[in-house]
Amino acid sequence: MLQVVHPTPPILRGLKATVDALTLAGHFVAPFPLPADHARGPEILNDFFLADGGENIKAFIADGAEPWPAGMRQYAEREAPFGATRMWELQAERNAFNKRVSPPRHRPTRSTKSADHSSRPPAPQLSDHWNATASLTPDGRPFDVILSPATAYGASLAQGAA
User: Fold this and answer.
1) C-alpha span between 99 and 79 (Å, rounded)
2) d(Cα 117, Cα 146) in Å, to the nearest integer?
3) Which of 97, 121, 137 is the last residue of a domain?
4) N or C: which end of the chain has fewer CB within 10 A?
5) Is 74 inside a domain boundary?
6) Structural domain harbouring 85
7) How does pLDDT run across 6-43, given as a tens digit for each residue?
């Protein structure tokens, strides 16, 4: 199973407790099979964050005389900044990726009374993928919901805090 986000142990415990309660109540619970290209999204984002070779964050870490946070080791390891050509290629790849996996943007007008996005059509690739989950369920219907944390971690602690 593809894992794009790796939650911390407290978040994983909360998800497990939810899955256990739903299963105990008789609900069918199964992992949602993400499309294979979904993992490329965070890679594209990281490439943008590290486009300068990690120089910006390296300077902040050096100024603060703090050790590198464990989850930011990739910034320390980036060797060289991207050139303009690579940045244009990365932007084109990001735009193509977004068109495949994101619903069209809702553009509110003055006649729109709310920012209700429930009528937005789903992205065709994800809609087809979602509907294909019907083959995984006992009743032949697509999944009803995805259980997912809002973030991969809880509150941040200061370095060295217990």
Assistant:
1) 31
2) 18
3) 97
4) C
5) yes
6) 37-97
7) 777 888 898 999 999 999 999 999 988 877 777 788 88
Long-range contacts, 133-142 (Cβ 8 Å, 24+): 133/32, 133/33, 136/30, 136/33, 137/28, 137/30, 138/28, 139/28
Which residue is associated with the tokens 């200061």?
158
4-13, 29-38, 72-81, 117-126: which has the minimum mean pLDDT?
117-126
**Triad 117, 120, 121: Cα angle to 5°:** 160
Cα–Cα distance measured from residue 59 to residue 55, given in angstroms and rounded to the nearest whole number: 6
Spell 19-38 as b/e; 16+ CB within 10 A means b: eeeeeeeeeeeeeeebeeeb
Residue 155 lies in a domain: no
In a domain, 136, yes or no: no
d(CA 4, CA 31): 13
What CA dihedral angle connects 44, 47, 51 and 56, to 10 degrees? 120
The position carrying tokens 């320390």 is 76
| Proportion of the chain in helix, strand, coil states, percent, rounded to 5 | 50, 0, 50
Q: Distance between CA 30 and CA 19 in Å, rounded?
A: 9
Q: What is the number of structural domains in the chain?
A: 2
Spatial distance between the Cα atoms of 156 and 106, rounded to a whole number of angstroms: 33
**81 close to 51: Cβ distance less than 8 angstroms:** yes
